[in-house]
Amino acid sequence: MSHALPQTPVDDKAASYAAVLSALEGLLAGERNLIANLANTAALLYGALPGLNWAGFYLYDGSGLVVGPFQGKPACVRIALGQGVCGTAAARRETLIVEDVHAFPGHIACDADSNAEIVVPLTGARDLLGVLDLDSPHPGRFDRADALGLEALARRLIAGSDW
Questions:
Q1: How far apart are CA 34 and CA 84, in angstroms?
Q2: Are strands 96-98 and 116-124 parallel, antiparallel or unpaired?
Q3: Residue 10: pLDDT over 70
Q4: What is the Cα–Cα distance from 54 to 102, expressed in whole angstroms?
Q5: How confident is the model at residue 107 (pLDDT cuts 50, 70, 90)?
Q6: For residue 150, which of 60, 49, 53 has the smallest C-alpha distance?
Q7: Other CB atoms within 10 A of residue 126 CB
Q8: pLDDT bucket at 8, cuts 50 / 70 / 90
Q9: Domain count, the chain
Q10: 2 is a domain residue
Q11: Model pTM greater than 0.90?
Q12: What is the mean pLDDT of the chain?
């Protein structure tokens, strides 16, 4: 059985992310509670984006990342900065797209079904806030169009929530 997911044209992905951003605007309207906004954002992404098996957040607690609201199987609770895809993206403060997580040095396998991952750092006035993490069973699931769409969603989420 193939795990290949048909590639969505970049223009279609941009339109899809625009629709998700619009839905996020509605969820954030009048609500600044961090946990509520993170939980709704994770649920929105998990339901709206095809080919995911995990969508959620790790929050920076001053020393490392701690699991926050998510959708999917139970997750690793703590991740050190510089460890795995999440910790590396957080330490570098840059989005990481990993086509094959099994080839990523130091990958942390929270779910053996995950094959691809994208991690977007969440940064604000206090610098690192956490990361947005999406996993997929489909190798090569994420690309630059996903990074751009998720980075725009992250900026809106950060601006619309009390950290």
A1: 25
A2: antiparallel
A3: no
A4: 16
A5: confident
A6: 49
A7: 9
A8: low
A9: 1
A10: no
A11: yes
A12: 93
**Contact criterion met (CB below 8 Å) for 85 and 101:** yes
124 three-class SS: strand
Residue 87: pLDDT band with limits 50, 70, 90: very high
Q: What one-character-per-residue DSSP string does 71-110 give? A: EES---SEEETTSHHHHHHHHHTS-EEES-GGGSTT---S
Instruction: Tell me if 92 is assigned to some domain.
Output: yes
133 lies in a domain? Answer: yes
For 116, the domain range is: 10-159
**How many residues in total does the chain contain?**
163
Closest by CA to 150, choosing from 110, 121, 125, is: 121
Indicate whether 1 belongs to any domain: no
Helix (H, G, I), strand (E, B) or coil at 54: strand
Q: How many of the other CB atoms lie within 10 Å of CB of 34?
A: 20
CATH assignment at residue 21: 3.30.450.40
CA distance 152 to 18: 9
